[in-house]
Amino acid sequence: MASESSFQQGMNGNSGAAKANEAQAGMPARSILSIEEGRRRKSMTEKPIHCDAERCGRPANCSVELHFFCLGHFISYCYDRLAQCGKVPAGDTSDEIASSTDGFLQECTLQAAVLVDPIRGFDNLERARLFDIFLWASELAAKRSAFTRPQVMDAGYRIARR
What is the pLDDT of residues 50-75, one digit of tens each? Predict the structure, then answer.
């Protein structure tokens, strides 16, 4: 009879040996409730970052210009911003506008290159749009650097004359 009660206590996790081991380790007796409570608390403190676009609750995949976006909003934001960058003349702008444009083009190119990776699991249309953004941003960045750095133009001119 005594062995049955010790067996039932062992099954319930209330055995004296288990409690003694936990008390020696300085740990309180654990229960299923405390483990679930810990999981709940952890999930409450580690919230995913959501898209900054208005009325979008999807998780953010990337960030550009200190904004977090899901893939769809990243693509639309980049297309809009690249169209604006294409209208900015290369040599006729202030340093602030030029550095902002150059920073966006660099950041956009890097983010698109990271996101186009097939491991991300995006469909072919989304990947084609990301590749288009990558190429457009790279083209604009190359045009801007060719016009804003005279040494680049001189080097190109010297190579062409050889």
Answer: 899 988 889 998 999 999 999 999 99
Measured between alpha carbons, how far is residue 43 from residues 40, 48, 59, 70, 103 in Å? 5, 9, 15, 21, 35
Write the DSSP string, the chain.
-HHHHHHHHHHHT--HHHHHHHHHTT-PPP-HHHHHHHHHHHHHHSPPPBP-STT--SBP-EEETTEEE-HHHHHHHHHHHHHHHHHS-SSSS-HHHHHHHHHHHHHHHHHHHHHT-GGG---HHHHHHHHHHHHHHHHHHHHHHHHH-HHHHHHHHHHHH-
Tokens linked to 105: 């083009």
* 78-92 pLDDT per residue, tens: 999 999 988 877 665
Q: Kindly list the domain boundaries of the chain, sorted by start residue.
A: 2-45, 62-161
